[in-house]
Each structure stands twice: as C-alpha cells, then as structure tokens.
Design a protein that fits this description.
Blueprint: H1 3-40, E1 64-72, E2 79-82, E3 86-89, E4 95-102, E5 109-118, E6 126-130, E7 137-139, E8 144-153, E9 163-172, H2 174-179
Parallel strand pairs: 1-9
Antiparallel strand pairs: 1-3, 2-4, 4-8, 5-7, 5-9, 6-8
C-alpha cells in the first residue's frame, strides 16, 4: 500500500468516526435537553414528581391567576377537562384543583399527562405535591376519574407574573405500557 492509499484509508476512517460521533451526539442531545429544561424550568417544563413543599408565609398582598388548559393528543375520543377554568391564589397558599377524565372507548387504555407551564419563567416557582401527571393512568372501558392536583406558588415568584397557564396534554401510552 503506497502513501496515498494509506492517507485515503486514514481519512475515511476519521470521517467514519466523526460521522458516528455526530450520530451519537444527536441521540444524546434529546435527553440532555429534557434534563436541562426540567432543571431550570425552560420551555415551561417541570419535573413530573412531587415537590417537597416547605411551609412558607402566604403572600396576601398579591394574587396570581392560574388558568388550566386540557388537551387530548391524537384526536382520541376521551373527555378531559378541569373543573374550573382558572383559580385566583395567593403565593404560598396550598391550592387544590380537580380534573375529570373519561375513557369513552370500549377498551381499556393507559394514558400519561404531560404538563406545560407558561410563562416559562414561572415553572420554577410552581410546586406540585399531588398530580395525576406523576405517573401513567389506567382506565377501564368507559371509566371516569376525578383527579386532583395540589400545588402552591413560591412567594418568590416575580411580581410581574400575575397570570400563569398550566396546561396538560394526555397521550395514549397503552402500547408502551403493554411492552413494559
């Protein structure tokens, strides 16, 4: 093998490694991005786990309106809605709201709710102690559930934020749940 052939082979080997590295980096960015979003509340994402809420003084000098939006992904014929379109809360006060979900299909399903918070800066100040979004929910055919969400807003919430939208989207994860 002459010098030119050796350099060409080495060049192709380097290109193969760079391509494989780029491919691996592409796969790694999704979980890294999600972890970053959950860690700092970017894009309105919050961790799907109960927060340890320490007792704090309720800030009665101001109120924040929390709106609730519900969506069912993929056009499923499920019924999903908040009992109240919005609540007005004092930061630091523990608040409970309820959501109703009905599986209108003739077979059992497993669904997972994914939360989103707007404005994104508010996500780090929302503390949920109970939420149906923490785990997958199983529903029998025709079953209806009344599901509470218990939360508080940290009094350190910036004063310029006086309205927060808490949106939940339910996804059908029946196929995924059956594989596990």
């Amino acid at each position: 093998m002459n010098g030119l052939q050796r350099r060409n082979r080495n060049h192709w080997v380097r290109l193969l490694f760079v391509t494989a590295g780029m491919f691996g980096f592409g796969f790694a960015t999704v979980p890294l991005y999600n972890k970053l979003c959950y860690a700092i509340g970017l894009n309105g994402r919050v961790a799907n786990e109960a927060s340890a809420v320490k007792p704090v003084a309720v800030d009665t000098s101001r109120t924040v309106t929390v709106e609730f939006l519900t969506t069912v992904n993929g056009g499923r014929p499920w019924k999903f809605a908040a009992d109240q379109a919005q609540v007005v809360v004092h930061p630091g006060a523990m608040t409970t709201v309820s959501f109703d979900f009905a599986n209108t299909q003739d077979h059992a399903i497993v669904a997972q709710a994914v939360p989103n918070i707007a404005p994104p800066d508010a996500a780090q100040y929302l503390r949920k102690t109970e939420c149906f979004c923490f785990s997958r929910q199983s529903f029998a055919a025709g079953e209806e559930k009344h599901m509470p969400v218990v939360f508080t807003l940290d009094p350190a919430l910036p004063r310029d934020i006086d309205r927060i939208t808490l949106a939940y989207t339910f996804f059908d994860v029946t196929d995924v749940a059956q594989k596990n």
